[in-house]
Write a structure and sequence with these properties.
The complex is a heterodimer. Chain A contains 13 helices and no strands. By secondary structure, chain A is mainly alpha-helical. Chain B has a single domain, classed as MetI-like (MetI-like fold). The model of chain B has no long low-confidence stretch (mean pLDDT about 85). Classes of the chains: A mainly alpha, B mainly alpha. At the A-B interface, helix 5, helix 6, helix 10, helix 11 and helix 12 of A face helix 1, helix 6, helix 7, helix 8 and helix 9 of B.
Amino acid sequence: MKASSNKRVRNLSKSFIREVEKIIKYLSKDLLTFFSFIFSVMIILMALLPQYISPYDPYKIDPYATFKPPSLEHLFGTDDLGRDILSQVIYGARTSMIIGASAASLSILIGTLLGLLAGFYGGRIDLAISMIIDAKLSIPTFFLILVVIAIFGGSMINMIIVIGITIWPPIARVVRAMTHSIRAMDFVEAAKALGASATWIIFRHILPQTIGVVLSLGILQMGSAIIIEAGLSFLGLGDPTLISWGKMLSIAQTYISRAWWMGFFPGLFLFLTILSFNILGDKLYEYYNPKLREKVVYI
Amino acid sequence: MGLARYFVKRILFSIPLILIIITINFILVHIAPGDPLSYIVGTEYVSPEYLQKLRSEYGLDRPLWERYFIYISKVLQLDLGISYRFREPVINIILERLPATLLLMLVSIGWSSAVGILIGVRAAKGYGRASDKLASTLASISVSIPTFWLGIILIIVFGVMLRLTPTQGMLSPNFMGARQLTPEMMIDILWHLILPTLTLGTVYLGTYIRSVRSLLVDELGKEYILFAHAKGLGSSYILWRYAFRAVSPSIIALLGLNLGTMLAGATLTETVFAWPGMGRLIYESAIARDYPVILGIFIFIAISVVLTNLIVDMINAILDPRVRY
């Protein structure tokens, strides 16, 4: 018993590694995607280990080094208080990644669950969930989040919760459609005939097949969450205790004619991060939907 | 289904949406920390007598369900509360700022959808080839650029370095306080509009490229296109007169749907360029914690988006019989 379960774990981890290898190979096929992959890894490292990467303490004020343009000493220059911009950008990556990853995870959780329920049970449950999805699509997401954050305050945990429970509909939509078509397949019928319960079928047969697509959508949602956070911080609604790219841009606005580097670099990292996630998410989505890859066109 | 029945169905679908929006607002006001009244009149400069009067006017001394209906009727009468910063009804402030935002949005939608359609059609025509890949890359870049960063870059380049265009506001100081709209003034406004519309349009360009491309690629895979080729019709004739015409209702619907998300971009754009529209108003109100205005704008925008979608769908139904079914 023990030996066989060990073997199963080994087999599973082997097939997992093989899958990861295949994905990396697929992503390395074109240059832009490859760079997005490398950049994402870099941002994740910045977020995980800022204390080892950043050259200075991002909070350290130096009255003798205010508004220093980019130089070898300060690669991205310094701000109005003499703080090193590069170090702030590195610590800002942590804020963006924590909020992006947590909010995306929350939206995956809600979206997958509701999508599975709607797609599997159909009928009234489906109708109700689809109505919620349609309604959400008609309400401007950013404003809904903005209003809630303006009232309840923009602490990190508030932002994660509010963004997470607002951006799930696209995931629910896709999972619902997938569940719907998988449910009609023969092997599900067979499982039912063998007496499998609904929970078993959903979690053992349907959920595993949706994971790839959900993951790719999750990466795209991470990009949206990051830009929403940056937008809120830019509008002065973010967490005042955090270093955030949006907040840096908002401060930079005041000194725009004096120190272009204050806004240029944080915005560049924000842009490249979102671009990387968007490209990676799109590519992964394509990887899991082979039908999207090659279409017939009569022109 | 006839046109009339489609209209009725579509309108009936919009009513619950508007109720949902009002309900969300009602819930927010009531679960928010503090007195609900502070979200209607703000927090400062209110005498206790006036507060009491407002309390009964808004029915805050009544049970919750009664309050809910009072709130709905107030909103439907366009009574969105009073701004404590301006000491004026919220709806007046919004309507005052609306034209600037509409101008910015319409011009941005106009040029970005036109350019987006051209590039998207070109991409679909060269499906899988270099032009298609270039268009896709361009679209990815466009949808990933943070509005406010692009705005700041444009200000640095065109305003600070080249000193070509104005970067703040909507009018030059010498036109301030003018009573009538003169031709010189209109040119001045357009001059001020260049950078904001470039910013806002660029960010939405990618959405149009992507949707037009993918809609067209699907359409071009259909057999009637092959048949048209067999008949000997030219490629661009088929592309524009057959395929593009077939997908145009979806494109129109997309323009309507984009309105809501575009308003978010407009808020950030207006903040960067000090454009005196609704977006800028949101920013100022958020800083000043002027809750009545923030909530009022949210309701106003959300309902406008629902109504715009309704109108767009109706126009589509008139133009294209397929939509009605």
